């Protein structure tokens, strides 16, 4: 488990962390769209990059959170922190999400009915702050990895992996490096 040293933060950085943690709690624990949007500036922007889901402004984001994001989280969803970087006006979190695709997840797999398959993938979130509030969230993940695990993409002849990418991030020795290269190259040092 990743441990973040809060003692090294300035008061301004600590305030950003507290606000970001409150935002996450509203999304994943209390499941409160109003509280989640209450952590944001007047015209916030959220973009899940692989699926361009999210929105701009309180009205659109509150609607998105209330109807398509918060209620469409699998009951077994868990997040494991890999790293956190706190700058002057932004936080970058890297973590692994694990869940069973038991509900339609509009933000992750829009238009795909539940497959019942287990998903495990790395997510990177860049959270920007202005005047003590969150102004932007840019959320990135490897959509090909998610599609492989959901059974929607056959990795056999493509340079993509499934949950192995997340497992390697959590334990560098869990999955050998260069497996995709080794499909077509014989090299003892790889």
UniProtKB/TrEMBL annotation:
InterPro entries: Cyclase_SnoaL-like, NTF2-like_dom_sf
SUPFAM superfamilies on file: NTF2-like
Record GO biological process: polyketide metabolic process
Domain of life: Bacteria
One Pfam family per UniProt: SnoaL
Coiled coil: none
Name of the molecule in the record: SnoaL-like polyketide cyclase
Organism field: Gimesia panareensis
Organismal lineage: Bacteria, Pseudomonadati, Planctomycetota, Planctomycetia, Planctomycetales
């Amino acid at each position: 488990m990743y441990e973040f040293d809060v003692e090294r933060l300035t008061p301004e950085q600590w305030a950003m962390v507290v606000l970001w943690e409150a935002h996450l709690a509203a999304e994943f624990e209390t499941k409160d769209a109003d509280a989640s949007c209450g952590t944001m500036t007047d015209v916030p922007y959220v973009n899940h990059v692989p699926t361009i889901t999210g929105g701009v402004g309180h009205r659109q984001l509150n609607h998105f959170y209330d109807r398509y994001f918060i209620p469409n989280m699998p009951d077994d969803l868990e997040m494991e922190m890999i790293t956190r970087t706190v700058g002057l006006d932004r936080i970058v979190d890297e973590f692994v999400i694990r869940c069973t695709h038991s509900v339609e997840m509009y933000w992750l797999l829009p238009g795909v009915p539940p497959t019942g398959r287990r998903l495990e993938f790395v997510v990177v979130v860049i959270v920007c702050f202005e005047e003590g509030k969150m102004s932007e969230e840019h959320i990135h993940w490897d959509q090909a990895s998610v599609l492989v695990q959901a059974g929607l993409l056959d990795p056999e002849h493509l340079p993509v992996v499934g949950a192995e990418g997340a497992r390697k991030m959590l334990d560098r020795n869990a999955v050998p490096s260069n497996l995709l290269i080794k499909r077509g190259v014989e090299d003892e040092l790889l």
